Amino acid sequence: MTKNINTLCLIDDDRIQHYIIKKLINKALPSEKKLLIFSNGEEGISYLKSNNENINKIPDLILLDLNMPIMDGWQFLEEYEKIHPTLKKDIIIYILSSSDNPMDIARTKEFEKVSGYLTKPISELELKDLMNSF
């Protein structure tokens, strides 16, 4: 089954990471790809809840940081599991973290909806391969 990744969502409090992902998207991917950026998990969950009825606004892929203020990545995943059954679109979630801690990597496997774990910084090739792998 092939899934088109047209909308990418970055949930990360690091403004440098926002800049890097924007640059990579503009450089490596076709211009019709959309990018949503949220600075914490609470903003991301709120967006998903408020736009659930419009599948064109729901991202196809979320890159999620683990360490953020207000609502971290773990809390986001817990909330996502609660709202997932009501979402009108199946979203692919990848952790994008600066942590290479084996305990963090193992813990993500507890979340059924997490498809993989990437460490920062993500390269242009990694992003391109990820966007084209579905």
Automatic annotation (TrEMBL):
Keywords: Phosphoprotein. Gene3D superfamilies: 3.40.50.2300. The modification 4-aspartylphosphate is found at residue 65. It comes from the Bacteria. Residues 7-134 form the Response regulatory domain. Pfam families: Response_reg (PF00072). This is Response regulator. It comes from Aquimarina celericrescens.
